[in-house]
Design brief:
The protein is α+β, with helices and mostly antiparallel strands and 80 residues long. It has one helix and five strands, in the order βββαββ. The longest helix is centred in the middle third of the chain and has 14 residues. It is globular. The two termini are 16 Å apart.
Length: 80
């Protein structure tokens, strides 16, 4: 779990179809997230929000994909 100030913008690079799911903190505003799911029909985005919700200890409704919904590089907003 990570403590942050709100609202906050996070740059996320998603690696799908990974053997192990994990979140790697690259610096204060950049994460690399490995997902075991394939990116089809929004499943990877849904799983990404679930993992980030657990990681930041916030509800899923406070997280949204601002940019990159169909891209591996995403911008995520965490609202207060």
């Amino acid at each position: 779990m990570v403590s942050i100030n709100y609202p906050h913008i996070i740059n996320v690079k998603v690696i799908s179809n990974a053997k192990k799911e994990e979140i790697i903190l690259e610096d204060n505003s950049h994460l690399k997230v490995k997902l075991s799911i394939v990116p089809e029909k929004g499943k990877a985005n849904k799983r990404l929000i679930e993992l980030l919700s657990e990681y930041f200890n916030v509800s899923k409704s406070r997280l949204r994909i601002v940019s990159g919904e169909f891209n591996k590089n995403k911008i995520i907003s965490i609202d207060s």
